[in-house]
Amino acid sequence: MIRVNTARQKFALNIDECAHAILKRGSKRTVLVQGDIGSGKSSILMMLAKALPTHIPIYFDATTKDLGDFMVPMFDKIGDEGVVRYAYNEELGLHLDKPVILMIDEYGKANPSVKLALLRLMLERKIGKKELKEGSIIFATTNLGTEGVGDILPPHARNRISIVTMRKSDNMEWIEWGIENDIDHTLLGWCKENPSLFHSFTQYEDPKENPYIFHPQAPERTSFVTPRSLEAASDWLKVRHELNATTISAVLIGTIGERGALDLQTHVAMADQLPSLESIKTDPTNAKVADSAAAVCMTVYRTLSCIERNWMDAWMTYMDRLHKEAQGLFVNGVRAEQYSRRDYVVQNKKFQAWCLANNYMYTTDKS
Length: 367
Known about the structure:
CATH topology of the domain at 7-166: Rossmann fold
Number of strands: 9
Helix content: 40-55%
Shape: elongated
Largest sheet: 5 strands, parallel
Structural class: alpha/beta
Low-confidence stretches: 363-367
CATH superfamily of the domain at 7-166: P-loop containing nucleotide triphosphate hydrolases
CATH architecture of the domain at 7-166: 3-Layer(aba) Sandwich
Distance between the termini: 41 Å
Mean pLDDT: 89
CATH class of the domain at 7-166: Alpha Beta
Order of helices and strands: HHEHEEEEHEEEHEHHHHHHHHHHH
């Protein structure tokens, strides 16, 4: 494994830090977010849209554009002075009466002419005589240049923008997101057991050290694990009972790669050890407790994603039968900043009693 010591990688930001920086100064300075394949860079657009409901979010795919896609001459608009007027691409948002959040996706892979055409917009917020509305935000995304997927920027383009490196989420950060976004609980349990799924190829000199992820020195690895492909794998797992074994194996291999798919399916087989939700709700003192730690984790993640006020008491009774690590896993999940069910969980008397009994650093008035 390589130790990464460059300043840019040492000060790599997580996705929330990238979004916050863009939110604070993206109306004045364009930030180019560079990061690993499938690490969630483009989801920053929706994060900003949620924070700025008065802005219009716009997705601009730079890889699909050519120079002629920016301005088209309107020959019927030639004035008496013989000047040609131009129509601007609607995906730039120049025609809108509200401020926009313009994400220029895959800027590094754009045609050279497109990169040049966007320079003034990224620096001055205008093209030709058209200017974005006051307060508009522009940011761009691209892959790491060392991935070898064509992301090349000339020095004069780099000097007009602020380039930040976005690190991949670690497994626990992604699990917190997954709980809130309906990711299959068996997949979350696998991610808990395998933090290397979220490593960057920059950590490995030899691609064989991590057979799950993308590595530029392993071109035969056409499918691999990323946060994006894990979400896709979750969608397949949700319908696994409707597909035969060959089909689910094939689609998972084509989604997260051979090694990832086979290991995940071994993990999924443990899901049969899980108690049913109904047994926990109706008979928490006798509901089955899984034998393996991984299956217990899956039980906890499933509960975090679907717990309701009317069976909180039953869950707390059942949880008391689990080992302390699993109990702490549930409470830490509740403590996650984005956890949407926190309010009624922390209001539960049994939950409060557990926190007091275990001297847990948690108070309900912070919910």
